[in-house]
Write a structure and sequence with these properties.
Blueprint: E1 4-7, H1 13-24, H2 26-33, E2 38-41, E3 45-50, H3 53-75, E4 80-85, H4 88-93, H5 146-149, H6 173-184, E5 192-196, H7 202-215, E6 222-227, H8 228-237, H9 246-254, E7 259-265, H10 274-289, E8 293-298, H11 310-317, E9 320-324, H12 329-342, H13 349-359, H14 363-380, H15 386-392, H16 394-400, H17 406-417, H18 431-447, H19 452-458, H20 464-479, E10 483-486, E11 489-492, H21 493-504
Parallel strand pairs: 3-4, 5-8, 5-9, 6-7, 7-8
Antiparallel strand pairs: 1-2, 2-3, 10-11
């Protein structure tokens, strides 16, 4: 297949790249697209050449709407968007534009290091600092430094999660890339802030970074993982009741001198704690200046965090901000399959897909559902069938779903695909109408208790067999990542469904 290549500044790609540079600003544009950006065009696909997978994932998560709108404006028709990565030879040819831009000194790359013995949080009288209050991962002889091997830590019954067990999907791909970057190239992008709602995997990701850094260390330095409550408690313990003590505070700071990675969970709990925030800022600047990788998590985007000083917000904004969304259907399915495999539980594919479809927005509910199915398996010696599983999980499913009506689905589908609402009731079999209609029937089966005949009757007086055919067809599209046209855009069907479901929740 022949490609047409456009260089930055040429027509029509120059218009697009200049517009994106205006959205990002010249410094961030160069960071994600490169100073010598290129675009390749096929009959159906627009291909950006970027530095690596991490940059591609960030662009997908943050700029796709801008890109899709520009494609329609400049080219006059939709294109699928794809990415390819520059070769080392291409990278050597690129020249960096430095005119009128501040020179930012590079942070030296640090070696990956190992965490020492984990203890309970000390009292005010104790000098030894705890790296994590609840965890005590044992050292392996292959990776622990000799000094640490002499100490035999006592296990507390809990261990850190591993990056390898974190299930990657469209909802968290950028955050996973950021975690990989923190492990393999610490200090290259600093700090990293990961935010998302409850049960999205933020803590799992931090623990995974800790485990990976510790496992690969060789120089005896330590990654440090703390919850925000532990950080606050440790700082307050360094201040004696009789008053402020410079020696005590210096002792608190000295505990961070020999670490390579600092991981702080739930930073929103610093809100309203003025003295602790001041100390956090001092520590932040000291660690970043040394090249220590900083990774933080929170429950909200930075602009929505209340009670944090503007200096903290601006420092976090200067690095990498990643959102972890609620898992989409396919990611939920992978989470269930992964956990079932870990337990050696013979979970049927149909049961797994049903649970992922009905409970996919909450990972903890997925694990709770698996616990119910596991208990049934232990009690009967057989895995529940699809019908039995639906009965066993009935309470969870009912509590998880809001009351969605057929008109709600119709409205959400039509808004996503950019078609008139009456279109789904028509007899038209045109592709731009038939595909959204089948997706609407599929969603009606997922979100409502309407009978097949009722669904068919609502969407243009069709039979129950038509609804069943639509359900099977859409399942096939999802499995094959089939692209669909939505509001003059071309999207993977899973992304189109995700957009519709976000409107229904």
């Amino acid at each position: 297949m022949e490609y047409v290549q456009y260089i930055a500044g040429s027509e029509p790609a120059g218009k697009m790249l200049n517009a994106l540079s205006g959205v990002l600003g010249p410094v961030r544009f160069d960071q994600w697209f490169g100073s010598a950006a290129t675009i390749r065009l096929t009959e159906t696909t627009l291909i950006f050449c970027v530095k690596n997978q991490f940059c591609a994932d960030w662009i997908r998560s943050n700029l796709m709407r801008n890109i899709e709108e520009l494609i329609q404006t400049i080219f006059g028709k939709p294109y699928q968007v794809s990415f390819e990565f520059e070769t080392a030879k291409q990278a050597e040819k690129k020249t960096v534009k430095t005119a009128k831009l501040p020179v930012i000194p590079s942070v030296p790359r640090r070696e990956l290091v190992v965490c020492g013995t984990v203890r309970e949080l000390p009292s005010a009288a104790q000098k030894t600092f705890a790296f994590h209050a609840d965890y005590q991962p044992a050292f392996s002889r292959a990776t622990a430094p000799a000094a640490a091997a002499k100490t035999k830590p006592q296990k507390t019954g809990r261990t850190f999660a591993a990056l390898e067990t974190f299930v990657e999907g469209h909802s968290n791909r950028l955050a996973v890339r950021a975690a990989d970057l923190a492990v393999n190239h610490p200090g290259e992008i600093n700090p990293i802030y990961v935010h998302g709602g409850t049960s999205t995997g933020k803590t799992h990701l931090l623990e995974g970074i800790w485990s990976a850094v510790r496992r690969r260390s060789s120089d005896g330095k330590m990654p440090m993982y703390l919850s925000c409550e532990q950080f606050v408690s440790a700082f307050l313990d360094s201040i004696p009741k009789a008053g402020f003590s410079r020696d005590k505070v210096n002792d608190f700071r000295s505990r961070f001198r020999s670490i390579s990675v600092f991981l702080l969970d739930d930073i929103q709990y610093l809100a309203g704690k003025g003295a602790t925030q001041s100390e956090f800022l001092i520590l932040f600047d000291q660690l970043r200046q040394k090249g220590v990788q900083l990774v933080f998590t929170g429950n909200k985007p930075l602009k929505e965090l209340q009670g944090l000083r503007s200096e903290i917000i601006s420092r976090l904004e200067s690095g990498m901000v990643c959102e972890i969304k609620q898992p989409e259907r396919e990611t939920a399915y992978k989470i269930l399959c992964s956990e079932a495999a870990r337990r050696k539980l013979p979970l049927g594919t149909d049961v797994c897909r049903m649970a992922a479809s009905r409970l996919g927005s909450n990972a903890r509910q997925l694990i709770g559902a698996l616990n119910i199915l596991h208990a049934s398996y232990l009690a009967t010696g057989k895995m529940p069938s699809l019908e039995q599983a639906e009965e066993l999980l009935g309470d969870l499913i009912r509590n998880n779903q809001r009351n969605v009506r057929l008109p709600d689905i119709e409205k959400a589908v039509c808004e996503t695909f950019g078609i008139a609402e009456e279109s789904l009731h028509s007899k038209s079999r045109a592709k731009q109408i038939a595909a959204p209609r089948m997706i609407a029937m599929w969603l009606a089966r997922k979100f409502t208790r309407s009978a097949l005949s009722e669904i068919g009757q609502y969407f243009g007086g069709r039979s129950h067999s038509t609804v069943l055919t639509a359900q099977k067809k859409v399942d096939q599209w999802v499995d094959a990542a089939h692209p669909v046209h939505a509001d003059r855009l071309v999207l993977p069907i899973s992304e189109a469904i995700q957009r519709i479901e976000n409107q229904l929740r």
